[in-house]
Amino acid sequence: MAEEQFLAVAVEAAKNAGQIIRNGFYQTKNVEHKGQVDLVTETDKACEDLIFNHLRKHFPDHKFIGEETSAALGATADLTDDPTWIVDPLDGTTNFVHGFPFVCVSIGLTISKVPTIGVVYNPIMNELFTAVRGKGAFLNDSPIKASSQNELVKALLVTEMLGTSHAGTTRDKATVDDTTNKINNLLFKVREEMARCFDLVHRLGRGAVYLGSSRVPPTHPHYLHTAELSREAMTSLSVSQQTARLLDCTTWTGAGPGLMDAAIKGALEAEKPVGGFKIAKEAGEWTTSNFHPYLPPETYLTCRFFSARKHGLVDAAVRSSPTDRTAVVALPGGIGTLDELFEIMALIQLERIGSTLPVPFLILNYDSYYSKLLDFLNDCQEWGTVAPGEVASLWKVCNGNHEALEYLAEFYNVPSDERNYHLSPQKNQQRTAAAVRDRIRPNSYRATPEDNGRTKY
Prior knowledge:
Layout: H1 2-25, E1 31-33, E2 39-41, H2 42-58, E3 63-66, H3 67-73, E4 84-91, H4 93-97, E5 104-111, E6 114-122, E7 127-132, E8 137-139, E9 142-143, H5 173-204, E10 207-211, H6 221-235, E11 237-239, E12 242-244, E13 250-253, H7 259-269, E14 274-278, E15 300-302, H8 306-315, E16 327-330, H9 335-349, E17 361-364, H10 371-383, H11 390-394, E18 396-398, H12 401-411, H13 433-439
Parallel strand pairs: 3-4, 10-13, 10-16, 13-14, 14-15, 16-17, 17-18
Antiparallel strand pairs: 1-2, 4-5, 5-6, 6-7, 7-8, 8-9, 11-12
Helix pairs in contact: 1-2, 5-8, 6-7, 6-12
């Protein structure tokens, strides 16, 4: 019974501290150094105080050793035979500071110097590891088991690299060490790029994230609608005859051509900041470039890794306080847009988007562009692979800019008499899909080398 009580109290303390870490993860950190490279934040200290107060309330006769307390005293506490709680309130502070989600609360209990209880909680990934001496280890209440494989040559070692032997990768120590070093170097580069993405978001501010096709030319109606939406989302309020802002934030895109370019130009027309995460070559482009044609270099990053780019775009829409007004807007697009759209949809569904507050997610169904996709998702409901009403609860489908702006205004409780949109005639945004197909030749989004990058009608 005592072990069960020890574990329950430790889990409760870890989860309470995890809430502090989760809140602080998306905010500006006040960082101090406790050594040449070791970092400590206010969150470390707040978590340790919370954990120790919680444990002392239940076990006042126990002893306590904390990483931050010991560091402040400049000494290492002695471990005795008394029941002793050993706490690292924020394990992975460097990751925490740089926005890398591998951080955790670590709590252990020793009795007669023997480790008896262990709790490790990652609040960003929502992973809770627990263990009681002699009773096994668990991840989110599921038992953790080691592989029954005891021959190295038959085991899976994280990944495989091409070896020099016809039989495949060799498993000698030199090869394993070389492979591990290559993996570590790659992971470091990915982590470094993610940190640069998070830093850019921190410098420019979070805001409205636009996802859309890179193939749409400036003459296309969808391009014009996107530029209008981006502009009006920043300038469509009128309060006491003074121009105010609906979102009043940074506009974020993939910093590419097409609809991404339209969103950028709309924001610039509204004289609002823009930021982006570009890649060297978008779909439909025939040349590679690490530079944007007109944006200042301090407003965007050229990403080598898609994972870093995606993390940056998701982080750019996070709301860390009730006064933040952000949004994710999915415009017409192809494979890349759909990939990002469904990934964000899944993050919202699983409550892993990283925002402590809800973020409006809009699907711009210009000219019924997404209607067949929506029909497919309705079919998924009939098959039972999607729960009834699940998709509709995750996003808002808007057929035009007025509907999108009204949804954002209602989401952020803007009074109707303060809304002041300047939109083109509604009929230009609400044409039928058949009318669009009659006007535009098949595959009109797609440029060819002969077109020299221009789309024909």
